[in-house]
Amino acid sequence: MRGYSGIGIPSSACIRFVRNADVDDSLRGILSEVRDRGVRIAYVGPKRAASSTAGLVNLLAGELGLKHAPYEFNRWVCFLDDLGALAYEEQGLVIIIDSAWMIFTEKPNEMFDLVEAFLIQFHHWSDRKKPCYLCFQMEPNEVIAGFATGYGGVGAGP
Asked: I need a surface site. Which of 29, 46, 134, 156 has the fewest CB within 10 A?
């Protein structure tokens, strides 16, 4: 399908389910270009997702430095409000969940809540014509993990 192509430009195709077969040698260039445009890249590897005792919502909110994190009550509502507010401060946002198939299997409710919260707040980015993507890298991908770790970005590391 689309893989990561076009994640540096606004689009309503804001959720991506990416398989390794959809990833080619251009991935490093795509991620570098997106980062160079000032788009924030957040990465969550499978080890961090599995070991997080605060839940996926608080892991992501913490990695993004969202204003009201960590959340205790109405976690997903607070998350989507904070994520929507981020649209006023950032040039764009790409969230990459690596090894998503495993996380969907182990934490399906959290993953579906993430999708719903992401879609509810998406209009803040779309109205400002800023890119905003939630990318589920279905299988582990060394290029993505290496890029996130190497660039020291939000959520860098496995």
From this structure: 29
pLDDT band at 50 (very low <50, low <70, confident <90, very high): low
The structure tokens listed for 19 are: 């398989």
Q: Enter the CATH code of domain 15-151.
A: 3.40.50
**Structural domain spans, the chain:** 15-151
In whole angstroms, what is the distance from residue 123 CA to residue 132 CA?
10
Q: How many CB atoms lie within 10 A of CB 77?
A: 12
pTM, rounded to two decimals: 0.89
Would the CA dihedral through 135, 144, 82, 128 be positive or negative? Answer: negative
- Gap between the Cα atoms of 115 and 117, Å rounded: 6
b/e map of 7-35 (b: 16 or more CB within 10 Å)?
A: bbebeeebebebeeebbeeebeebbeebb
Sheet holding 15-18, edge to edge: 15-18, 132-137, 93-98, 40-44
